[in-house]
UniProtKB/TrEMBL annotation:
InterPro entries: Metallo-B-lactamas (IPR001279), Pdiesterase2 (IPR000396), RibonucZ/Hydroxyglut_hydro (IPR036866)
GO BP: cAMP catabolic process
CDD domains the UniProt entry points to: class_II_PDE_MBL-fold
Protein name, UniProt field: Beta-lactamase domain protein
Pfam family, any one: Lactamase_B_2
SUPFAM superfamilies given in the database record: Metallo-hydrolase/oxidoreductase
Organism lineage string: Bacteria, Pseudomonadati, Pseudomonadota, Betaproteobacteria, Nitrosomonadales
GO MF annotation terms: 3',5'-cyclic-AMP phosphodiesterase activity
Domain of life: Bacteria
Gene3D superfamilies: Ribonuclease Z/Hydroxyacylglutathione hydrolase-like
Domain Metallo-beta-lactamase: 18-189
Amino acid sequence: MKVRILGCSGGIGGRHLRTTSLLVDNDILIDAGTGVGDLAIAELAQIDHVFITHSHLDHLACLPFIVDTVGDMRNRPVIVHATEATLEIIRAHVFNWAIWPDFSVIPSAEKPFLRFSPIRVGEAIDLDGRKVVPLPANHTVPAVGYQLDSGHASLVFTGDTGPCPELWAEVNNIRNLRYLIIECAFSDREKKLAVASLHLCPSMLLEELTNLQRDAEVFITHLKPGQIELTMQEIEDCIGEFRPGMLQNNQLFEI
């Protein structure tokens, strides 16, 4: 499995800041933030599955545009995977005819451009031998992270989460874990905001990573624009022993 980072910023601004999206091989997206907009139309048309961590706009902003752009180029619907709670939010607040047309019934209910598929934490979805496993997360709306498992190695993406003991219980059971992509949205000077919004800051990230019992390369995502250097310096000062890297657009992982 090849995982390409399309976007990993906590916001936008300039040519290099794109919000969260990961392209797995050529046909799977994990989240659909603004990074998806850099794909060519031919690349968009190859996407069969979109796994959404949660309903916040920075993680699904491009989902309506994907379906609208390539729906008529495909012979089967794009399948959107998310928890039932997240799907209910997406149906009610995005594909509701007021914000965007309901492509789950366009051009017809029998042959739609979009299909919703509910998932449950811990229940793997097998896509031609590639497993996508929803993991626990703790956020202000229903949320999950994902394990991507090729059979040889795994990558874990936490999505947006505050402190979450249930996540580490699952991660520590992954014997072939190679990469951990974990959020750190705020600097420590905004710890109160991190706590209130169920995100992490460096000191909270340290507390979370002390629960990690597997060897893995750690990468930091969801840094807020304007605080990137400050937050990464605080991370280095706080958790340098984990040797975390800053996730980058177009970074490629092979598992």
